[in-house]
Amino acid sequence: MNLSRFLFLTVFILFQSLFAVAQDTLSLNKLIEKSQKVVEDYPFEKVYLHFDKPYYAVGDTIWFKAYVALGQDQPSDLSKVLYVDLISENDTLVRAMKLPIVNTSAYGSITLDPLAYKSGNYRIRAYTYWMINFSEDLYFSKNIPIGDAINRKIITNITLKGENPTNNPSINASIKFQDPDGNAYANKKVNWQLISKFETIARGRETTDAMGKLALKLSASQKAALDTAILETSLEADVSRLITSTFPLKNAFADADLQFFPEGGDLIENLNTKIAFKAIQEKGLGIAVKGDVVDNTGKIISKIESQHLGMGSFTLLPESGKTYSANLSFANGIKKTIPLPTAKKSGITISVLSTTPANIMVQISANQAYFNAHQDKNYYLVARSKGVITFAAQAALNTTTIGAAIPKSKFPDGIIQITVFNTKGEPLAERLAFVKHSNVSSLNLTSDKKIYGIRQPVKMNVVAKTRNLPVEGNFSISVYNESKVPSNEDDESSILSSFLISSELQGFIEKPNYYFHQINEKKAADLDLLMLTQGYRKFSYKDILAGKEPIIEFLPEQGMEFSGVLRTSNGMPVSNGSLKLVVPESRFYAETKSNVRGEFKFENVTIPDSMEASISARSSNAAKNMMIMLNGTAFPAITKNKNKSEEKLNIDSLLLPYLDHSKRQYRMITQMLQEVVVTSTVIKKPSHSDHPALTGLPSMPDHLINADRFQGCTVFLSCLQSTATGLTFADNNFYVTRVFNSGLRVPVQVFLNGMPVETTYLNNVQTAEVDNVEIFLKDDLGLVSRTYNTNGVLVINTKKAVKGTAISAEDLKKLFPPSNVLTFKPQGYLKQREFYIPKYLTAESKTKGADYRTTVYWNPRVFTDVNGTMAMEFYNSDNKGTYKAVVEGTDIEGNLSRFIYRYKVE
């Protein structure tokens, strides 16, 4: 769909007796001009990531493709660099990646190393440097559940039910314990303690029943103590083995709330108004509700009942002098009475009907009091889509009701914001509506068969059309075994739900993809309820008219660049200095000169991640000891997860079918690795035993973290927080988790190459220089604990130079950094990996080994030609079942498409 169709503004004069034309259009023109200027000067960017499947297990590789678009969904050439962050459920950064954007797309992968990742609720966010100028709500964000079938020692499933929240609050907890093979831990002793705000408020010792279940009643003097509490259990699996598990108790108490949203914004006396509502439960998810709307005399005015995810609507004619409330019963047993908004005595509002095929029906209504005070005054009706005004009209208020039919053909797919203004430019009423054209773009996917055998080749063909004509496009496709990776399409994200809803509306949106598959009249009505109950994200009209523009600190990146200042040893800038940037490993080379202020910049640099680079400087007068000072780069703060309501409590239980298959897959890989015999000489790794002060520690640490687990990490301390098994990071210190949860605040002592350091000193450690990290949860001899009054030891060992012959004076000079040279390891581009596609061409290859892949095909480079087609071929694995192929993307005009196709392997 051509953007020019929507950037061109038409002021419609509605030739109806109810819509009279006014002469003065100055305020309307001013609104249009200012709004258009903001769109042109401050374009929004959007990012969407297509993943190869909805969830993962430790040991998997996450494959993804990023689509970068402007606010109008057209492919964006604004930015050329994309940032992708993997964040833990504790809101700590686990992995930071930088990717080049090529032809408005980027590709990447994340290997979930069993030594670096554990089961949990992770999330991935993606953004460009330009997007940092605006709200983080605009970033792409998606929850990624990750289970663990490799390292898990226990499978737990807990249910919580709170009782008596006001008097003598308690929680009934039921926990089921199973071993990794699903067998019950029957008749096992379990020590438990309840910890709230670092204090143990209850403890006990119980025994599981024959089914491995344990029932506990957890009490506290106040509900707030239980809301923030953690239950820690230690199960005695055998005589010498304790297995510890922790469970947060938040959201254990049932709760519910409801908000009312009058159409247009306000309730107005003597105007019949549609009122939408949204009910949510304790986790922030929608909940079913029903009840009665009553007036202040107790008379029932209306029955209400939710129709989708706690949302519903009813109509009300507010009478003068009356107030209204709703007596509600929620699905979780909560009962509440909630007052409706107070009706205004005088006002104007808007109502919209968007479910008709060709038009959006708009009605502007004023009550008699407002009409008497503003008769014949001018009003403006303005509609904008994706920030761009696409419709504007003006009328005189010569009747209490004004109607108009706006053709849907004037709008692109997506959300429309329809606003009524007075001649001062003040917004008086507003309504969101949604338009989805059914005949604009389409995708189709076909295969040469509907039923295949294992390891048989699959030939597929993608066909893309726009307005029934073949079109070139940019797409990606994933094919995975749906029988092994079951999922609900409503819970998935798609390019349609992301670009058309999630990037446009404020706050958490539950199941946005529900509205984009198997569309019917009910889903269209449910989507209209969403429009009534969510806020719009674009620049507000009040800010636009007031001239309030966003503060721009970061310009769009056109590539990787390094900038800084060249100074003499006494701090004076060096003008016209010559600088060279060299990346030996990739053979990259660039030159530049400093300006009169000593500033320099290297543009369009290409450096793969973790490679060493050096900048050398030379001045016209051959000055020595110059300082090369690089500028830093911004990194957005990690805030609370807006999609936290969707986090899973019992991940390993919920993903059990997939994890059982994953265990089978990686057990074979482990066995194959164990058969390899290494005969080379062992090179001693640096360890705590190299330092006399630490020789009292056990010879083997409780946990050893090797350097490869920090690969791709930019800030060592941030990555250590999420990888330090058995430790908790809080208040700039590490603590032994078990001790920390018991309420004791005795920190761990940190050593760097045998030297005691503060934890914050680790911010200075270069990740590439770390060889390993040793964690000692106990100091049996107490030599460290007594000396430093600490508990536990964390040892960081950096890489050592290889011992050899005596070093010469010339070699010794080389160990010192040369003057006028800066060597550093920047965050480079993520190294590209190709998805492995086996080929079973011979009889031997069709029977040799085992192929347990769940994702059998991933291709982020599906580019349809002028005929709108692209062919592809791949081979099935040994897994039987139903396979799901998902292809999605955008054509060259920015029209979005998604298609799902299934076939069977028997």
Characterization of the model:
This protein is mainly beta and 906 residues long. The longest helix is centred in the C-terminal third of the chain and has 19 residues, at 656-674. The protein is globular.
Class computed from helices, strands and strand pairing: mainly beta
C-alpha Rg, in Å?
A: 32 Å
Number of strands: 52
Using the alpha-carbon principal axes, give the shape: globular
Overall pLDDT confidence: 88
Task: Estimate percent helicity.
Answer: 10-25%
**Low-confidence parts:** 1-26, 671-681
How much strand content do the residues show?
Answer: 35-45%
End-to-end separation in angstroms reads 42 Å
The neighbouring-strand order within the major sheet is 2-8-7-4-5
Number of helices: 13
Largest sheet: 5 strands, mixed
In short:
The protein is built from 13 helices and 52 strands. The protein is mainly beta and 906 residues long. The longest helix is centred in the last third of the chain and has 19 residues.
Furnish the topology, listing elements before pairings.
Layout lengths: L3 H4 L18 H16 L3 E7 L4 E2 L3 E10 L10 E7 L5 E8 L4 E7 L8 E8 L12 E8 L7 E9 L6 E9 L10 E8 L2 E9 L5 E7 L3 H5 L1 E10 L2 E8 L7 E7 L10 E9 L7 E7 L4 E6 L5 E6 L7 E7 L4 E5 L8 E6 L5 E8 L1 H7 L3 E8 L2 E9 L4 E7 L6 E9 L4 E9 L5 E7 L3 E2 L4 E10 L2 E2 L2 E9 L13 H8 L18 H13 L7 H5 L14 E8 L10 E6 L4 E6 L5 E7 L7 E6 L8 E4 L20 H4 L1 H19 L28 E4 L9 H8 L3 E4 L2 E4 H5 L7 E4 L2 E3 L12 E7 L6 H6 L4 E6 L10 H7 L5 E4 L30 E10 L4 E7 L5 E11 L4 E10 L1
Parallel strand pairs: 2-8, 31-52, 44-47
Antiparallel strand pairs: 1-3, 3-6, 4-5, 4-7, 7-8, 9-10, 10-13, 11-12, 11-14, 14-15, 16-17, 17-20, 18-19, 18-21, 21-22, 23-24, 24-27, 25-26, 25-28, 28-29, 30-32, 32-33, 32-50, 34-49, 34-51, 35-38, 35-40, 36-37, 36-39, 39-48, 41-46, 42-43, 44-45, 46-47, 51-52
